[in-house]
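Good morning C.,

I know you're traveling, so I'll keep this short. The sequence:
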Amino acid sequence: MAQTLLKISGLKVAYGGIQAVKGVDFEVREGELVSLIGSNGAGKTTTMKAITGTLPFLGGNIEFLGKSIKGRGAWDLVGEGLVMVPEGRGVFTRMTITENLQIGAYIRKDKAEIARDIDRVFTTFPRLKERASQLAGTMSGGEQQMLAMGRALMARPKVLLLDEPSMGLSPIMVDKIFEVVKQVYDQGVTVLLVEQNASRALQLADRGYVMESGLITMSGDAKVMLSDPKVRAAYLGE
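The tokens, ready to paste straight into the viewer:
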């Protein structure tokens, strides 16, 4: 059985004075793509922020590579390979595409390898290569999403967390982003995908979890969940 890279146990998180996550358990094993689905306000993004050390948690525990992350800084976790592409992308708009990618490798000192990884990102995202010296703020939302994913890959993640990567994108760009998520996963990167587009997320995933009102209400094989009448009624509009 594959090693568990990320283990969340009894997680409780308050956000803006409201307990948004009320005791959540799930895990991500090496080589998996795991989807966390649920409607807006279910607590998915709050969970992601707690996992990456950007939001303190009230109770429970989060273990990454077998060690608790409690009290550790986000920069420290990035250095160990826990890397998130945030909701809303968060690219540095007044820097070029190449500069954004270099920022993704700020914790690394291996200059030759960094240059090789930039080339690798450009192979994965040819559209970025065409615009390497363009300011990130002048790109479309979909292109910025590709850049945010490329920047995260520059940190050589052991687990890549994607928070709503398709949000606000055109249908054509949504297709492209999901193609890229699959490509990254096929390259051997372990992925935790938070996504409102439940159908697309479960089609890609090995396993899925459903989150409602701060609790995990369902979990299992993603393909089985995709055909579950309750999931279809609640999230796939059927």
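Safe travels,
E.
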